[in-house]
Each structure stands twice: as structure tokens, then as C-alpha cells.
Design brief:
With about 575 residues, the protein is an alpha/beta fold. It is built from 19 helices and 10 strands. The strands form 2 sheets. It has a 6-stranded mixed sheet, sandwiched between helices. Strands 2-1-4-5 form a 4-stranded antiparallel sheet, with helices on one face. Bound molecules: adenosine-5'-diphosphate (ADP).
Length: about 575
């Protein structure tokens, strides 16, 4: 409990600075909140005045004054209530907007090791359900929470000040109400968690059966599926009913406590009136104010869960914001030279706490050389390639370009000089032109066309009905795997890097596109240092040198001809390949 309160205090301390831009709204909102609470308390006090000073002594002026005051207070309450909803919600929504933006920007900056550790679904939930849990609080909950706390505290103070004897009668029931509320809060929280859990289960059941509807119908399993769903549905119903049961005992208990206390106040009040200790107005005042006592307790216990889950959400969001960027730019980083050798020097690597993946690899790739990496799956080829582009930092050793350790390079020059083309070309919603333009900030239309022309594929896209302005989303299904690769190669051509790290696609393409992709790759590689993870015999054959990666080390390194002559692993691999590929 101590740790939790400490954590919520840290969250609170960090939230405060984020509200600084909305200081005015916070101040105005607080003032309005207090004002509104005061108007709520003023009503019964005015009634008390009207009875004691107006009705009882038969003073018409005092009674009229009380009525006018009551109406005025009601009018003020109306205006203040409207204002507070608007101001407080605006501050809350602005806070959420800023928070979403911060999380998004942070997610964009976080490096590969983070994405290896975290599941995509969990990362997305930071932006959705965690922030949503705060939205619920921000929209109405926060307002209710604060007004109820204020109302409760102010009411107790006013009751005690007006008549401590009657206040004592009221407060007898309060401890029981508070105890019942705490129990309710616990039980309903538990019941609520079960409901949420089961909603998740029902949803995933639904999603699976919709995704698999073809299989279900093909095997005539509709009834079985429905029966399976009925079971889940029943379980969800049970969970809901349990939470209803919790409410069913709690709400009437509070109601009963309110009625009981009112009866006690009227009884005790009547006696005190006959003793001349209190006035009739005071008793009426107490009866009217009692609702300000029990309702807040009841609402607070219901709101408590909202506040708790919002707090939990906020903490998780802060965790993302606190996540260190592992592959970050050093202070005093320098730009990489335009050209240079890429040197892998005694590099060892492991993913997170995982087993070692590379063992002290040494490799020098002179400027302009084309190196093909081959080897069995899981040997570490991609890992080596990723280290050469500093998607990860080595655990031991260093990777240098033109003598500069990649860890000392500025992020901008690093991404300018060394570009990775992933296996699957990823396209974003937008036109083909937009997708190529991603390769370089501020590239003109002419630059984009030139990049496409350089790799010899401009005609392929320009001949589409909408040309380069073709939307890839709309054509997503019609843009073939090969075409996607062409776009991704054009992106790299536009970036015009000194070093290219290519992961060749394993999937086979249709023969027409295959030739086009091969040609594009050849042109793209011209005049650059290239590290290509080769899945095709021809790619390895055409490289200047071939490196065989096996079990996290460089087993062989040499020209294609030398390696074939040596009759080692590459020769064996080559033999298998040649047999498999009809030439
Ligand atoms: P290759 O490219 O030769 O198939 P990789 O470099 O992809 O081999 O993988 C080498 C080893 O590292 C494999 O055992 C693989 O399971 C592991 N590995 C690859 N990527 C990750 C990752 N992101 N997180 C954890 N382990 C990984």
C-alpha cells in the first residue's frame, strides 16, 4: 500500500507540470467547483432562514427575501455548473491530447530492442485502453469526484457549525455507510475485473469465429460454434449478474441508512425543538442537507474504481515515456564521412537477455564492395546486417564506417549513409509517390521520378491509370509483392546512401516482376557498398565476395569461385542450390 501511494504520488508530481499550459483553466475550474459546492450548500441554509425568520415569526419580507435568494442561488448554480463542466473537461481533454502525442512521439523514437521486448498489442493498448481509462475519469469522473469530496467535507462542517447535537445524530450512521462503501468498492472492483476479462474472452471467440467462418461452414460446424459461444456468453452473464448482486445489496443499504438517519434527525430534532435548543428551520435544514452527506459517499465508492484504473493507466503510460532509447545519439556525435570502409571489429551480440547470437565477428567491407551473406536460417545473417546499420548496438566490439564508430555518429548522417531495405516492402496509406518520397525529406516530384528511373522501373508505375498518384491502399491487394519491393527499392535509391543493407525476399515472384526486381536491385547496388542477405544463388554468384555465416560466426569468406574451389560449406550449399534451380 505504501509503495502504491508512493507511486501515485510520483504520478501526481509528474502530471502537475503537464497541466502547466492550462494553469488558467485549472484555477478557473477549481474556483467554479468550489462555487458550485457552495451553491448546493446554500439552498438548505436559505430554507432555514425562510422558516425561522419568515414563516415562524410571520415576517413576509424575510420570507420573500429567502425566496428571491433561493432563485438567485439556483440561477448562479446553473451558470457555474455549465462553466465548470466546460472548463474542467477542456483541461482534461487537452491533457489527454498532449499525453497521446507524447506517447506517439516516444514510440516513434524507441529503438528495435524495445520492440523486440514488447508485444505490438501491448504497445497499442498503451495508446488505447490505458488512455481511455483516463478519458473516462477526465470526462465526468474527475468532476464528480472532486465535487463529492468537497460536498462531503463542507456538509459535515456546516452541519456541525449549525447544530452539533443534530450533527452527532447524523454522523452515527456515517461510519457504517463508509464501511459498507469500502466493502462495496472492493467487491465491485473484483466483479468488474471478472466482467472485463470475460468480455475479452467473448470478443476473441467472436473474432476467431468470424475470421474462420469459411472453415466453420466448410465443415458444417455452425451449431457447434454457436454452442461454444453460448457457453462463453453464459459465463459473461454470470459475471454481470455477480456485479449486479453487489450493487443490489449496497444501494438499498445506503438508501436505508439515509431514511433511518432522516427519521432519527426528525425525531431527535422534534425533541430538541420542544426543548428550545434548535429551531424548526434547523431541523428542516438538516433533513435537506442529509442527502449531501450520503450521496457523495455512495458516488465516491462507485468512482473510486474509475480513479484507480485511471491511475494505473497513467502509470503504464509514464512507463513508456520513461523507457530509455537504447540506440540513441551520443552528445557530441559527429557526421559520418561520405565514403569509407565498413569494418566489423570483434563484434559479439545477443538480443536482450537471450543467448549469444554472434561471437566476435571480424569483417572488413571495402568501400564499393558487394558482399553476399549466406547460411542456414537462424545463423545470424540478419543480425549481422542489422548491426552494420546500427539498428542495434553490439554487446562487444564495434562497427565503424570510415573509421567512425557508428555509436559516435549523428543519427541523421547514419540514416543518410546506411540504408536498410527490409525483406518485405512496407507501404503506407497514400500514393506511390508519397511512399517513395519517404526515402528523403523534401524530395521533389522530379527527384521521385528520377529515383524510379535510376532503377529502371518508372515506366512500370507511370503506365498505371493514375500513374504515380495511384493510391496504394486502394490498390493494396492489386499491388503485387514484387511491385511493393520495387517501391521499397526506389525509396532506397532516392535516399542515395553510401551503404545499402538488403534483405533479399525469400518468396518467389512472378517471372515478369522477378526480372524487373533483379534489374532494379543491380542498378541500385551500382557504386555502393552493399551487404545483401542472399536467398538466391544468382545473387551470391554476382557478389564480389561471399560470407558464410554459421552458428553466429563467419565460417567462410571469399569470392564465389574461391569458395567453390575450396569445397567447404559454400561449395556444398552451392551444389544443392544448383541442383534445385533449373538453369
Ligand atoms: P538469419 O538471418 O541467419 O536467419 P537471424 O540473425 O535472424 O538469423 O537470427 C539469429 C538468431 O537470433 C536466431 O536464433 C533468432 O531466433 C534470434 N533472433 C533474431 N531476431 C531476434 C529478435 N528480434 N529477438 C530475439 N531473438 C532474435
Amino acid at each position: 500500500a505504501c509503495a502504491r501511494s508512493l507511486r501515485s504520488r510520483t504520478s501526481l508530481r509528474r502530471t502537475a507540470p503537464m497541466l502547466r499550459p492550462y494553469r488558467r483553466g485549472v484555477v478557473v475550474g477549481t474556483v467554479l467547483l468550489v462555487l458550485w459546492t457552495l451553491t448546493t450548500l446554500a439552498g438548505p441554509l436559505i430554507v432555514r432562514f425562510g422558516i425561522d425568520q419568515g414563516i415562524t415569526p410571520g415576517n413576509a419580507a424575510a420570507l420573500n427575501g429567502a425566496v428571491v435568494a433561493y432563485v438567485l442561488v439556483a440561477a448562479v448554480a446553473y451558470v457555474v455548473y455549465r462553466g465548470q463542466i466546460r472548463v474542467v473537461s477542456q483541461v482534461g481533454e487537452s491533457f489527454l491530447r498532449d499525453l497521446r502525442l507524447r506517447v506517439f512521439a516516444k514510440l516513434q523514437r524507441l529503438s528495435m530492442p524495445f520492440y523486440d521486448r514488447e508485444k505490438a498489442g501491448v504497445v497499442v493498448s498503451r495508446m488505447t485502453s490505458d488512455i481511455d481509462s483516463m478519458a473516462e475519469l477526465v470526462q465526468m469522473g474527475f468532476l464528480q469526484f472532486v465535487t463529492n469530496v468537497l460536498l462531503l467535507v463542507f456538509s459535515i462542517v456546516v452541519l456541525v457549525v449549525v447544530s452539533w447535537q443534530l450533527a452527532l445524530v447524523c454522523l452515527v450512521a456515517l461510519p457504517f455507510v463508509v464501511l459498507a462503501s469500502i466493502k462495496f468498492q472492493r467487491d465491485s472492483n473484483e466483479a468488474y475485473l471478472v466482467v472485463r476479462d470475460r468480455i475479452g474472452g467473448t470478443l476473441s471467440n467472436l473474432q476467431e469465429s468470424i475470421a474462420g467462418v469459411r472453415v466453420i461452414q466448410a465443415f458444417g460446424r455452425e451449431t457447434t460454434e454457436t454452442r461454444r459461444f453460448a457457453e462463453r456468453n453464459r459465463v459473461l452473464y454470470d459475471a454481470h449478474m455477480r456485479s449486479v448482486k453487489v450493487q443490489a445489496w449496497y444501494l438499498p443499504v445506503i438508501e436505508l441508512a439515509g431514511i433511518g438517519t432522516t427519521a432519527a434527525v426528525v425525531g431527535a430534532g422534534g425533541w430538541l425543538v420542544s426543548q428550545g435548543t434548535v429551531t424548526i428551520g434547523t431541523v428542516t435544514f438538516f433533513v435537506l442537507t442529509l442527502s449531501n452527506l450520503f450521496e457523495p459517499v455512495q458516488q465516491l465508492s462507485q468512482l473510486f474504481n474509475t480513479v484507480q484504473s485511471a491511475g494505473a493507466g497513467l502509470q503504464k503510460v509514464f512507463q513508456v515515456l520513461d523507457e530509455p532509447v537504447e540506440v540513441a545519439e551520443r552528445p557530441g556525435a559527429v557526421d559520418l564521412p561520405e565514403r569509407g570502409d565498413l569494418v566489423v571489429d570483434g563484434v559479439s551480440f545477443a538480443y536482450g537477455d537471450g543467448p549469444p547470437v554472434l561471437h566476435s565477428v571480424d569483417l572488413t567491407i571495402p568501400a564499393g564492395e558487394r558482399l553476399a551473406l549466406v547460411g542456414p536460417t537462424g545463423a545470424g545473417k540478419s543480425t549481422l546486417a542489422k548491426l552494420c546499420a546500427r539498428l542495434y548496438d553490439p554487446v562487444e566490439g564495434q562497427v565503424t564506417f570510415g573509421g567512425v564508430d557508428l555509436r559516435d555518429a549523428t543519427a541523421r548522417s547514419l540514416r543518410q549513409h546506411i540504408v536498410v531495405v527490409p525483406q518485405e516492402g512496407f507501404l503506407f496509406a497514400g500514393t506511390i509517390r508519397d511512399n517513395v518520397r519517404l526515402g528523403s525529406d523534401g524530395a521533389t516530384d522530379a527527384d521521385v521520378e528520377e529515383a524510379l528511373a535510376t532503377i529502371g522501373v518508372l515506366d512500370r508505375f507511370a503506365s498505371l491509370p493514375d500513374g504515380l498518384d495511384t493510391e496504394v491502399r486502394e490498390r493494396g491487394s492489386r499491388l503485387s509483392a514484387g511491385e511493393k519491393q520495387l517501391v521499397s527499392l526506389a525509396r532506397a535509391a532516392l535516399a542515395d546512401p553510401a551503404v545499402l543493407v538488403l534483405d533479399e525476399a525469400t518468396s518467389s515472384l512472378d517471372p515478369g516482376t522477378e526480372a524487373l526486381v533483379e534489374g532494379a536491385m543491380d542498378r541500385l547496388m551500382g557504386g555502393r557498398t552493399v551487404i545483401v542477405i542472399a536467398h538466391r544463388l544468382t545473387t551470391a554468384e554476382r557478389a564480389d565476395r561471399v560470407g558464410v555465416v554459421d552458428a553466429g560466426g563467419l565460417a567462410e569468406l571469399g569470392t564465389h569461385d574461391d569458395l567453390v574451389e575450396d569445397e567447404g560449406r559454400y561449395a556444398a550449399l552451392f551444389a544443392t542450390w544448383s541442383r534445385g534451380v533449373p538453369t
